[in-house]
Amino acid sequence: MRFNFEHVSGERERPRILVVEPDRRYCGVLARRLGEFGYRVATADSAQSAMAELHRMPVSLVLSEARLRVTSGVELVRMIREDAAHRDLPVLLVIGRSDTGEAVRAFDAGADGVVRKPCHFEVLAACIARLLERAEAMKRLAEDNAALDARVIERAIEVGELRQRLAQLEEKARSLP
């Protein structure tokens, strides 16, 4: 499955995925395969370097190994969800095949999905595409809601001004003989 990049913010720019993986070889494989699916890829080897990368350049989605050194992938999800600038960023964790507890912890922390190792790249790409489509739809909805809120405020001001003008006209009419 290939992501339709024309729907991303109305642009043809390819989404940027941050891959967080401490194993350099596996990280390289993920980066290469995701690149084949048309994504731009940035990499980090720890939760701390991932957070630094998030603040350095815009990212469309985070794909992280659950078992990172020092700070876990689940804790990385929590850090992202607590960061106002990245709170709504889609996060996908890669977990061990039999690590059901880790999957539950990932969802409890706010992960948007989990993929079990060894992952099938077509399934991974389809999952990423779906998460990106949902994130884009949510972004459009938030923009539409903000525009609607602005129009409601505009109309409320106009109604207030009309009421004030009506009150002035009524007062003027009462003062006529």
Low-confidence stretches: 6-11
Can you count the helices?
5
Percent range of helical residues:
55-70%
Count of all domains: 1
**Strands, count:** 5
Determine Rg (CA atoms, Å).
Answer: 24 Å
Q: Which geometry do the CA atoms define?
A: elongated
Report the CATH C-level class.
Answer: Alpha Beta
Provide the fold topology.
Elements: E1 16-20, H1 24-36, E2 40-44, H2 47-56, E3 61-65, H3 73-82, E4 91-95, H4 100-109, E5 113-116, H5 121-175
Helix pairs in contact: 2-3, 3-4
Give an overview in words.
- The protein is an alpha/beta fold.
- It has one domain: Rossmann fold, CATH 3.40.50.
- The chain is 55% helix and 14% strand.
- It has a five-stranded parallel β-sheet with strand order 2-1-3-4-5, with helices on both faces.
- Strand 1, helix 1 and strand 2 form a beta-alpha-beta unit.
- Helix 3 packs parallel to helix 4.
- It starts with 15 loop residues before the first strand and ends with a helix.
- About 3% of the residues have low confidence.
Structural features:
55% helix; 14% strand; alpha/beta; 177 residues; Rossmann fold; single chain
Compact description:
With 177 residues, the chain is α/β, with parallel strands linked by helices. The chain has helices spanning 24-36, 47-56, 73-82, 100-109, 121-175; strands at residues 16-20, 40-44, 61-65, 91-95, 113-116. Strand 4, helix 4 and strand 5 form a beta-alpha-beta unit.
